[in-house]
Amino acid sequence: MARRQWSIAGQLFALQAVVVTLLVLAGASGAVWLARIDSRQAAKDEVLAVAQTVARSPEVRAALTSPDPAAALQPYAESIRVATGTRFVVVMAPDRTRYSHPNPTLIGQPFIGDIGPALAGEPFTVTNVGTLGESVRAVVPVYGDDQRIIGLVSVGITTEAINKKLLAQIPVLLAAAVPALALAATGSWLLSRRLRRQTHGLGPAQMTRMYEYYDAVLHSVREGLLVLTRDRRVALVNDEGRRLLGLDDDAAVTDEPVAGIDLPPAVAELLTSGRDAHDEPVLAGDRVLVANQRATRFEGKVLGTVLTLRDQTELRNLASELDSVRALTEALQAQTHESANRLHTVLTLVELGRADEAVRLATRDLELAQQLTDRVVGAVTEPALAALLLGKSARAGERGVDLVIEPDCRLDDSPLPTGDLLTVVGNLVDNALEAVAGSPPPRRLRVFVGTVDDEIVIRVGDNGPGLDPDRVADAFRRGWSTKSAGRGLGLALVGQVVSRHGGRTEVGRPDEGGTLFTVHLPVPREGR
After folding, report:
1. Residue 20's domain spans which residues?
2. Hey, what long-range contacts does 321-328 have (CB within 8 A, 24 or more apart)?
3. 262 and 357: one domain?
4. Are residues 47 and 158 in the same domain?
5. pLDDT tens digits, residue range 323-337?
6. pLDDT tens across 247-304, in order?
7. For 439, which of 14, 34, 167, 385 is 20 to 30 Å away at the CA?
8. How much is the CA Rg of the chain, to the nearest whole Å?
9. SS3 call for 498
10. What residues have CB less than 8 Å from 130, skipping those under 6 apart?
11. CATH number of 24's domain
């Protein structure tokens, strides 16, 4: 079995528990140490005060000068000892002879301990070992009427008694230490619990590997990624996302609100809305992107929003060209069937002996087709554009729409890229075909492509229901189209070409109704 690794939260909790325990123990030990020092100092002060009181007592001075000092001093000293709670009160002669002692058998024997400073007239305290064990004692001189030292008084408290008083204070220390330890442990547990939620219980090694792997993936993946927080701030943008959105590599966008970043309008609207999106086409400058957006959740709580972007500009262009080729193919197939039907009709008329009618029928159809071909090929010398118009004309015929090439249409050697011309003309014609699809007959389209005053003018009009003026700007900005699904990119792609070449677009309403799109594309300087 693999060795179980501690999470960051678990390690932090263990560390905090150890640190808090050590701090509490150190604090308690310090308090005990200070209490011990205070207890010893209090004992020293107490025995010194008692000794000085006894030394100044007139009874003691009188007894020391009497013939039998012990007889008077022993009961007096014992009464003082009992009253003050000290361990011993010893009155002695300057030569150490005891006149009083808690153990009467030791009266008359020499006092054990240092008395030198007191004989020199200096009261002092000291810790010494005597007949009653280790004690804190004070020795004070007793002065006679002539200010000579006539005796000494020693008062002591055993260290055992001091320790008992100190031990009596331990419950108070514990009463303060235990709640402090419990409070610190609870705080550490709550903090570790919150950290566990934020790190999802991962250990440091796991988080390090995750960061390294995710960072490598985010920088290498060929799909734009943008992550937002719950308050609509940018948490992450990978390299591909910056490239697709046109963001400067050095621009600091992390932790910035979406509204404060210069994003393409369609992307900004999608991010601001926070709605879920699945393979939704959006425009970003000259690019056609496919966006997927959804909210991220953990344990039922919304953490933020993730937006992914895929560049499909080239794929859209190829798909548009493929649609044009497919439409032309379908038109040719339809024309093949139509021609076959007419040929059978002509042959039947010949077999019936009605050759004149057969000739008139064949000549009329040939003239109509040739007139359209001659008009398109004669007006537009660009083969691809001419083929596009012929294909659109055939497609319009299938749908019962009369596509008219205006007589003054003329375009020779366009200096603009052929792909841009095909994008503008093809999408405008397709949009017009969609617009008139539900209109009653007659349905008509008019197309003009030509050069006017150093501008290439493309004009496509229809007699459909017309475009609402309030939706014109929205159509070019967000990819709106006349399709019922409302997700077409035709007009938006036209707007991209116009913007790229510094042109302009006009949307009007002709007298016969419908919509008239006019695109002006300036001819490049070197092409004039």
Report:
1. 9-165
2. 321/422, 324/388, 324/391, 324/422, 324/426, 327/391, 327/392, 327/394, 327/395, 328/387, 328/390, 328/391, 328/394, 328/395
3. no
4. yes
5. 666 656 765 666 666
6. 876 666 777 787 778 788 778 888 888 888 888 877 777 677 888 888 887 777 788 8
7. 385
8. 54
9. helix
10. 112, 113, 137, 156
11. 3.30.450.20
